Amino acid sequence: MRGRVPVVVRRQRRGRARLLLARGLWGAAETAVTLGVLVLLLVAHQLWWTNRQAREGAERQVRALEREWARGSAAGRAGADAAGTGPGASSGREGTDREEPRAPGRAEAGRGTPGSPAAGRPRAPRWDRAYAVLRIPRIGVTVPVAEGTGKAGVLDRGYVGHYPRTARPGEAGNFALAGHRNTHGEPFRRLDLLRAGDRVTVETAEARFAYVIEKTLPQTSARDSAVLGAVPRSSVHPGRGYREPGYYLTLTTCTPEYTSRYRLVVWGRLASVRVRGAEEGRGAE
Q: Rounded distance, CA 49 to CA 38, Å?
């Protein structure tokens, strides 16, 4: 009998070891499943929830700006009518719509357009504040434009951001914007689909500026800051961009998708300006 005791003890130890191993494997499996679920939730949050929240917020902001501008236009018309200078007032000429005025030519660059300092436009908007609406019919984009390119205050809210120290809408120089390509509303998801001749409009409280797309730089370094210059051109890809002053629009986003390694750049040029109020029968002067 005494000779059988060690055998029984060894079997008990083996049983306990197997039980501990099974429990460990089960715990590891539970941990892996939990981590997998968390990863899936994170992906869903980034790819679906942030888009939904940002798009809804951006749409509300666009509607708020449009209401604000409509109230301002109504107040302006009422004041003009009271002063006898409204569309219905006798001025010696009919108050009919006019064709959109053409953008200033090269010889006029720097003289100022409606909405420029030379035309007495308002001060620059506050940081992170939405003050314009960008519309790109080709890719179905209608999105607010805010001052600055910070993530929390601008880009992650589904807005596009105006690069500081670049021109304002309609000004001589380069009006440059940035937007997310993926997540948080991804307004520039399909920016690569824009082609020469596509129309882009920027509307502010003062005017509507129409730009026409002319050039695309499919990929350049994130440090290629020359694409944001007053005369935009690439310092990485010689020959890509412009060589003379003008009224430019630059749209930038990350590329390839789901990375931030490079930048995709689209350039356009100002084609026309419509001063707010022209739609009511008074053309831009």
A: 15
Residue 3 phi/psi, 5-degree rounding, is: -70, -15
Q: What are the pLDDT digits (tens) for 170-221? A: 999 999 999 999 999 999 999 999 999 999 999 999 999 999 999 999 999 9
Q: Which of 162, 180, 184, 282 is catalytic?
A: 180
Give one DSSP letter per residue of 112-153, joined into a string. Answer: --TTSGGGTPPPPPPTT-EEEEEEEGGGTEEEEEEES--TTT
Spans of all domains in the chain? 66-85+101-280
180 a catalytic residue: yes
H-type alpha helices, the chain: 5-44, 50-82
Q: Is 263 a catalytic residue?
A: yes
- List the catalytic residue out of 263, 274, 276, 282: 263
**What distances in angstroms separate CA 116 from CA 111, 124, 170, 179, 274, one per listed residue?**
9, 11, 7, 24, 13
User: Count of H helices and E strands in the chain?
Assistant: 2, 8
Reading the block at residue 41, the tokens are 């939730």
Quickly state the pLDDT bin for 118 (edges 50, 70, 90): very low
Report the amino acid identity of residue 211.
Y
- Alpha-carbon distance of 41 to 59, in angstroms, equals 25
Mean pLDDT of the chain: 79
CATH of domain 66-85+101-280: 2.40.260.10
